[in-house]
Write a structure and sequence with these properties.
By secondary structure, this protein is α/β, with parallel strands linked by helices. It contains 16 helices and 11 strands. The chain starts with a helix and ends with a helix.
Amino acid sequence: MFVAELQKMGCDVTLALEWESDVGQVSQTLGIPVDVSKLSIVYIKPGNIFLCRIDTFFPVFRTNRLKKLAKNADICISALNTCDFGKPAHHFIWGVSMDDNMFLRYARHEQLGTMRSLFQHINRFLMKHILRPIFGVRSPQSIIADPREHIYPNSHYIEDLLRSYYGPFTSTVFYPPTIFESALPGCVARDPLKVVYLGRIHPDKRLDDIIEIVEKAREKSRSDLVLEIGGILEKETAFGKRMLATAAEKKWIHFLGPLYGEEKDRFLCSGTYALHAERDEAFGISITEYLKTGSIPIVPDEGGPKEIVDSPALIYHTNDDAAAILANLYLDESFRSRLQAHCRERANCFSREMYFRNQHTLLTRILDGTP
């Protein structure tokens, strides 16, 4: 989407990719008007598998390639967290990895034992102060702390997290594109008993918490709430087997498999409530999709999703809190109607049109040199 907009604004764009990708096919599938005939595509990962693995942990090859490209560029933009272009650049942040394991553990509140913590600090010192300077590669910390760089966190949550860890830097929060737009609100019967979840079915998504919340809400409301889960379930993994066993025991849980296009739209429009439990998510595209289809998302009080819903009435700290919110939404029709109206209003903030407008404004400022 950046490439299409920059081309529209008359820019000569070089797209640096880590892996081979059919950009033309992708742009067609997503309905994004990229002119591939006028786009220069360069791959910046080494072809050798062994070197590629080394570059993943210590990006010497990638950095040198980017620096060579950057010499002939007027503006450098990274859409994949921070990169070392050898010159000041614009960095759009998409997650909490930042090529810095210590920051990742900080973001996830993970505690290490004394010896492992000592090892991590020694390793970081060697990488940051010895190896990277020797090979001319800046650390993510030095990129973020450099006042000449401009950072674009994808939520205020990530902006605050980065500042609390790396210190002050110049930034502008920029929400990522939420391309999905529903064509069916009002055309599909909405089930007042249905709770939906759509996304990756993985332990990181805390499906156990979501199941517990619905179970407690069923007890509190004395209702037959059901939980329908859309996404790919890897049935042969230990987690997948446990999820299927849980669904076999609790008949109100249904795994529907992957959902795309109109099937996905119909699934989301048929639900009344949606649950999210991951606490370190930078933004939460699925939350915007819930809003756009009229479902009422209930989200934790940590991470980017709480910014999206922007309502204390839909934010929880404990699973008991979430169950109480869900039960109250089911039992109190006026409360539910009030929150549905709020969610419709919030959905407008993440419309496709709004994103394009914000993207054009931001890229114009970048090209003008006044971000």
